[in-house]
Amino acid sequence: MSLMVDRWAEGWAACREKPLERDGAAWLVRVGDEHREVERVVESPSPEEARRLVALSEGPRRWLTVLGEPDAEVAVELGRLRSVSRVETMMTARLTAMPRDRDAILEERGDVATVALMVDGVEAARGTAGLSGDVAVLDRISTDKRYRRRGLGRRVVDALSDWAVSRGADAGALVASPEGRALYLRLGWADLLPVASYAGAEASAAPGDAAGRVT
Asked: Mean of the pLDDT values across residues 72-79?
C-alpha cells in the first residue's frame, strides 16, 4: 500500500482507539462495534489478494474496505459481498498553522486530539484528529443539524489542522462522504482515491441494507 494509505489507517485506528495489525497486503482493524467485528483495509488488491480477503469477509460483521478503483477481475470477487457504503473519497491536503479559535475546546490524549465548538451552551460541532508520522488523519467531523451552514465544520477542521501542525504534521488525510467532500474541496483538499466498503451477508439484513460508516 502507498505510504499515505498506511498513514491514514494508522491515524484512523488511533482516533477510534482500535487495535491495528497487518494481514497480507491489508490492514486489519479490530473494530468491535454493533456493525462490524473486524474491518480489513486494502489498496488496489490483486485478484488473488481480493479473493483471499473476500473469503475472510464472508462471515457476519466482517467488513472489507477497498481503496482505489478495482479492475474487472477484482470487481467480480467483490461482487460476492454486499455493499455497505456509498462510494466515498480519500482526500489529502497540505496543512498550515491557523489563527487560534477561542471558542474551540481542544482535548488532547497522546497523538489524538478532539475539538468541540459550543454555541449557547450546546455542542454544535466536533471532530477528531490522530497523528501518524507527519500526517494528521481527520475523523468524524460533524455538525449538529440545528447549526449547519454556519461554517462550524470549517472551524473544526482549522482548529484540528492548527493542532496537528503544532505537533509537527504537514499533511492531512481523511475519508469523506459525498456530502462532506464538497466542504473539503472548498477548503483546498484534493481527491486521492475512491473508497468502498463491503461485508458478508447478514441473516437478518434485507437486500441493500447497509450499516452507515461515519468518517
From this structure: 97
